[in-house]
Specification:
- By secondary structure, the chain is α/β, with parallel strands linked by helices.
- It folds into 4 domains: 126 residues, Rossmann fold, CATH 3.40.50.2300; 164 residues, Rossmann fold (3-Layer(aba) Sandwich), CATH 3.40.50; 76 residues, Helicase, Ruva Protein, domain 3; 54 residues, Arc Repressor Mutant, subunit A, CATH 1.10.10.60.
- The chain has 19 helices and 16 strands.
- Strands 2-1-3-4-5 form a 5-stranded parallel sheet, sandwiched between helices. A 5-stranded parallel sheet has the order 9-12-15-8-16. The chain has a two-stranded antiparallel sheet with strand order 6-7.
- Helix 2 runs parallel beside helix 3, helix 17 packs across helix 18 and helix 18 packs across helix 19.
- The chain starts with a strand and ends in a 9-residue tail after the last helix.
Length: 461
Amino acid sequence: MARKILVVDDERSMTQMLKILFEKEGIETATASSAEEALAAIPQSHFDLVLSDIRMGRLSGTDLLREVKKFETPPDVILMTAYATAESAIEALKLGAVDYIVKPFDIDELLHRVTSVLEKRNLIEENIQLKLELSKVEKFGDLIGSNPEMQKIYAMIERIAPTNSTVLVQGESGTGKELVARAIHSHSLRKSRPFVSVNSGGIPETLLESELFGYVKGAFTGAAQTKKGLFDVAAGGTLFLDEIGEMSPLMQVKLLRAIQEKTIRPVGATAEHEVDVRLIAATNKDLLEMVKHNGFREDLYYRINVINIPMPPLRERREDIPMLVSHFIDKAARAMGKTSPEVPPKTMELLEKYDWPGNIRELQNVIERAIAISPGRTIEPSHIPDNVLGFCATGKLFEIDIRADGFSLNDEIEKIRSIYVLKALDMEGGNLTRAAKRLGITFRSIRYYVKKYGLGYRENS
């Protein structure tokens, strides 16, 4: 993929020299003589990298860096200066510069640093594109994902779908438990018969019995006619009982009997009748722990837990997020009569970092919202809710952010070392001997680092 950079320096000879240098390497290069000119050019063209001098006119390179970082999909920034100080280097890196180069620089070293940044950016975008491409093939029914745990679930569904075994699907809310139940049904011998879903926790106990088993005319006030229960509605097919952990102890007893005897008695009836239903239950609770504390019947637990399918939360399958995003974009765009927008790398990176406590359901809602409010052909960070952006910006471990695509630890260590060497030299007025002592290294080592980093200091007596 062709890359494009913007060189910013108020010395025309410098910008022209760098333009010739980079274009010989096949890198498309534009130039600007001021930060103001650069800020006007960036929105008009897709730049992957801005290479800018620090000391210029009214706005410095550091000012430019601050403004560039405000763009929705900012290019990377490398700052150059002939007036290196530890403070300026630290400030540049804190503000988000990917590198800091001291003039005069070695041409080969500069080329190496610039091409390294461009190659890393290219890898990030290729990785995201690859994940999006995988989304076209890595799915099972309405289940989407290439995560190893999801692959195990697909294989399990294929094995158990032809059987009549009872299944318990466990996982956090929003992980796709009903999708698993539907996939089992659609791959079973019962697929031509009904799939009936009921939320056990969403119906009061007094109504759940009549909802599941039905009732006869006159069974209670308002029962003006006989009504089939969901067991009968699902006859020959599959009955999905969601949130079974919310079911009352009395209903647990009646459900256990229905599973054991394969018969039900409608409310108000005097006789039972047989039902042919495959039962799939789901819960976001730890039923075994509830059994230990008498919150769920042990005998019912083992009746429904013949086959157990644990659903991983989205935070444990982040590699599937691009696939899910692509799926939800197409689905929502069709529903809204829009063209499916693109997702820039920066936006995708934010989505992959978030922990998604609401799992896939929360991701779907975020994507639908983004498409609804996006005026253009891309989903930008500004279209993502603040709670998602806030989490991603804060981070957790020592405020250190390690990108999902990885990075070069050696390069980061070199940057930190150059900052410490600069600081020590400034503190010792450029005296290499005293700076080396302050850093706990030899004179030969500091002389090597000064040359390597192009710091321009000489030994003072």
